[in-house]
Structure to design on (168 residues):
């Protein structure tokens, strides 16, 4: 058995599939505070949170040498019928895939790329809600695999082809 000390990194075969994060960035952030200026006791009980998550992707460059993935998270907080706040974030990354089979690009874009982006989007949502006068919203980790398969099912029902077959 070959073991490495804690300071050494594992050697990656040049032929193994790799995801390179070329850049990541906040593309869009909005926060609407419907209860701004209301007394602090209005925040005593936790609100009901409704959340929506969407992943989008597109090729970038003349030869599709990179891909942009957008992780979109929308929150709406209510207390009873009273809207408290809404927040929307689009956190994006530019990715390059090395030694990845064409059929693996789409699942990687919809599962692995948003998984890498999620902690940063979550942090922005926590900060903006805290700055809005509320306790920071801490979203539990998201498993993007079921979201991807739901998207595939929806596209099949609509008669659309998968990403790799559609010429992307």
């Amino acid at each position: 058995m070959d073991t490495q000390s804690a300071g050494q990194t594992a050697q990656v075969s040049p032929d193994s599939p790799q995801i390179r994060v070329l850049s990541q960035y906040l593309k869009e952030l909005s926060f609407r505070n419907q209860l701004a200026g209301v007394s602090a006791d209005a925040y005593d009980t936790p609100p009901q949170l409704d959340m929506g998550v969407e992943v989008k992707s597109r090729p970038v460059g003349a030869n599709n040498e990179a891909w942009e993935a957008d992780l979109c998270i929308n929150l709406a907080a209510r207390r009873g019928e009273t809207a408290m706040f809404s927040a929307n974030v689009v956190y994006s990354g530019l990715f390059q895939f090395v030694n990845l089979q064409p059929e693996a690009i789409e699942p990687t874009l919809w599962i692995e790329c948003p998984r890498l982006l999620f902690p940063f989007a979550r942090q922005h949502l926590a900060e903006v809600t805290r700055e809005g006068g509320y306790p920071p919203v801490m979203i539990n980790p998201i498993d993007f695999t079921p979201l991807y398969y739901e998207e595939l099912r929806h596209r099949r029902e609509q008669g659309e082809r998968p990403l790799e077959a559609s010429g992307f």
In short: The chain has a mean pLDDT of 85.
